[in-house]
Specification:
The structure is a homodimer.
Chain A (H helix, E strand, L loop, with lengths): L2 E2 L6 H12 L8 E5 L12 E2 L9 E2 L3 E4 L9 E5 L16 E5 L11 E4 L16 E4 L8 E2 L10 E3 L7 H9 L4 E5 L3 E6 L4 E2 L10 E2 L2 H11 L3 E4 L7 H11 L5 E5 L9 H5 L4 E4 L4 E2 L5 E5 L2 E6 L3 H20 L7 E6 L3 E2 L5 E8 L4 E4 L8 H5 L3 E5 L5 E2 L4 E6 L1
Parallel strand pairs in A: 1-18, 6-7, 13-16, 13-17, 14-15, 17-21, 19-24, 22-25
Antiparallel strand pairs in A: 2-12, 3-11, 4-10, 5-7, 5-8, 6-9, 18-20, 20-21, 22-28, 23-27, 24-25, 24-26, 26-28
Chain lengths: 407, 407
């Protein structure tokens, strides 16, 4: 028997419930080791300690001459040029009174402690290798244009924390540290079911009273982009026994069930009805759009029941599922949050947290795209941010500062 | 024979050159039609016109009663309840003096022009279907809680412009319009070659003077994330004839060659040397890091020669290749640009456009991650923005406003 609450819960309370629902999925057997590039977009399952210094050895920051700083007085000095040090070589000790041509990234010869860029030398080019030559160099302090071993990161220090989202830069760091694979959270398997007698598959004829299913595409794309493994069933009709049978068939193979539609207070609420006998709660969330929400489990599998309008679906995903996945599994990356100024006024139901869609410009102002209606999928497709209007706000003037989440 | 310029070109000039290099790849034979979900992350190759109205028909925004607004005077009226209209049904005309229970999203019956939410009705629930009932409803203006046909988008209007990046919301819109596939730009095929005698594959032993190749992982991950198809060769040594042979072997199969390293003014610059006899220009760009850049073509295939340090590689990709791909092919999505305030002062070479790495907080301030050095891959991995310091700036104080690009 499902539970219907009438007290509205806040956005934060509902997000806490979603976290509580999914936290048990963070288990050791759901961790896998993947080659670095296969781990792109995943979350790190364990902290990584640097096994070596970065850089691994003191090296030159410039093409120039390696020298002993004590050899050159303030007025400069003429030094004998010895064999050049290409990148990748293990150079011999630099004899006192000599200078070695050194390339960017090449190891500083033992004894050398500074580099003078070739542009500051006289002559300002490298002599042909193998021929006797001297070079006049200005004084340089110890450490001049030298990248010390460990100056970016020391062996033994934490390199990346557990839960880090693995993008190009994080994978690049792991490669620099010599890793070839990395422990990550396994992609969760999601069963995505859209429902509704009014909903038909794109490509089919559209009869009167029917609309094309955009929720399925919208949410599957959002979930794939977030690194989830998605199974789609066809669209479920509004017959509860049909939906229940479909869920029973697929539930054993997935980590989470997400449905759309049928969670409101109308006369035909297929998801509510199909959940009868299961531990699923239908508590309205003080949010617009996306207020009606179901949460619980079906045959022991966690289930989230999103409302049926496309904008409500997207908002439900972005406000609840996505941030909780980021927090628990390090993937997807959290949405960047910035402050922006409204380009125009807006009204909001004071008892609800309103989520509007908008376009943030490079000047830091945000324009509304369409009205508050949850069916405005064209307006949504032209938005790049979600505008957060907290509970307790009835109106905001043009110029008001708001929090926006970048899509 | 390659050309070496000494005049520094600006960031914008070099980006123009990259655009000129890649624009010829935008050809009709490089357009393919993909199913919607396979098109996730691609750029739209042709504008899309709406084939139908969105919504396709006038429908109810609430669970409530559909009525003729003229039937209810200011004080309200008692109406006879007729058969309910579920979503997906094609309802019969609403007789004058009656009200039809209607579900959210259901088609407004012909004759009806307004909806009163069930909470405002007396009684405030739907009567059991099939039994005679009346309901008392307050007056409602025509259009009350009605979503008009075409109010989001009208048939014949532009839905998405050519060049639009296809994320979840854009694909959701295409599904709502009934499309099952979409014309997109084919993913460009990239040959990525890292070079350097000092560079070894992660997982191998690290001898003195050697470093692990992070550029390959960093750039391949960036390119994959940007929707490109990447072929990696092994690391090329610093022998130009070896690199040239490797490029000749792979060039016929790719759209673009990207190399790292060997483009500076040192004594061993393998990419410069391997490009001898090809139309490749090595003009320093007034940018830090990432100043040394090669651009041109090798055996008729466009080539970009990025510098050898990891941060320089990432900055080259983000400043030149990524924005040009966004512009020409609609994919990847452009980096969001926002204004932020520096949390700390910085110094910059006034003759160069400096790109620093930083962390943007939700309060709109940006902290520097590491110094200006282009080897700081650990600091890069902890950054979420690139901070743009334009040419002509020698220093910025804490609190100064800067443009940041969100990674």
């Amino acid at each position: 028997m499902h539970r219907t609450q009438t007290r509205r819960v806040s956005v934060e309370e509902h997000r806490d419930k979603v976290r509580g629902l999914l936290a048990p999925l963070r288990t050791p057997d759901r961790v896998e080791r993947l080659p670095l590039l296969a781990a792109l977009g995943r979350g790190l399952a364990a902290g990584i300690t640097a096994p070596l210094d970065l850089p691994p050895f003191a090296n030159s920051q410039m093409d120039g001459f390696a020298l002993r700083s004590a050899d050159v007085p303030d007025g400069g000095a003429e030094l004998r040029v010895v064999a050049p040090v290409p990148a990748g070589a293990a150079p011999a000790e630099l004899a006192p009174g000599t200078a070695a041509p050194i390339m960017t990234g090449a190891m500083l010869p033992p004894g050398a402690d500074a580099v003078v860029p070739v542009e500051q030398a006289v002559p300002d080019s490298f002599p042909p290798p193998g021929q006797p030559a001297t070079v006049r160099l200005p004084a340089a302090p110890a450490g001049n244009f030298v990248r010390d071993a460990g100056s970016d990161l020391r062996a033994g220090e934490p390199a990346l924390a557990a839960g880090t989202f693995l993008g190009p830069a994080q994978l690049g760091l792991l490669a620099a540290l010599g890793f070839t694979e990395v422990p990550v959270h396994r992609a969760l398997a999601i069963l995505l079911v859209t429902t509704g007698d009014e909903v038909v598959e794109p490509g089919s004829p559209l009869g009167p009273g029917k609309i094309y299913d955009s929720n399925g595409t919208l949410l599957e794309a959002s979930m794939r982009q977030a690194g989830l493994a998605v199974t789609r069933t066809g669209i479920s009709t509004d017959r509860p026994e049909e939906l229940a049978a479909l869920l029973r068939r697929h539930a054993p193979a997935v980590d989470l069930i997400v449905t759309t539609g049928g969670v409101s207070k109308g006369a035909y609420e297929v998801v509510r009805q199909a959940m009868d006998g299961h531990d699923v709660e239908f508590a309205p969330v003080a949010m617009q759009p996306g207020g009606p929400q179901g949460i619980g489990s079906f045959d022991g599998v966690p289930v989230l029941g999103f409302p049926g309008n496309p904008v409500s679906c997207l908002v439900s995903f972005e406000m609840f599922l996505r941030p909780v996945l980021s927090e628990l599994f390090g993937s997807p990356a959290p949405r960047p949050v910035v402050r922006a100024r409204l380009a125009e006024p807006l009204a909001s139901p004071p008892g609800k947290h309103q989520v509007r869609r908008g376009t943030l410009g490079p000047d830091g102002t945000v324009r509304l795209e369409g009205g508050a209606g949850s069916h405005l999928v064209h307006a949504l497709a032209h938005s790049n941010v979600l505008i957060q209007v907290p509970e307790g706000t009835a109106a905001l003037a043009a110029g008001a500062e708001v929090e926006v989440w970048m899509l």
